[in-house]
Amino acid sequence: MRKLTIGIATAALFALGGVANAANIVETAKNAGSFNTLLAAAEAAGLAEALSAPGPLTVFAPTDEAFAALPDGTVENLLKPENKDQLVAILTYHVVGQKIMADDIPDDTTEVETLKSDGDTTVTVVKTSTGVTVDGANVVTADVAADNGVIHVIDKVIMPSD
Question: Which of 66, 67, 127, 149 could connect to 57 by a Cys-Cys bridge, CB 3.0–4.6 Å?
Answer without folding.
Answer: 149
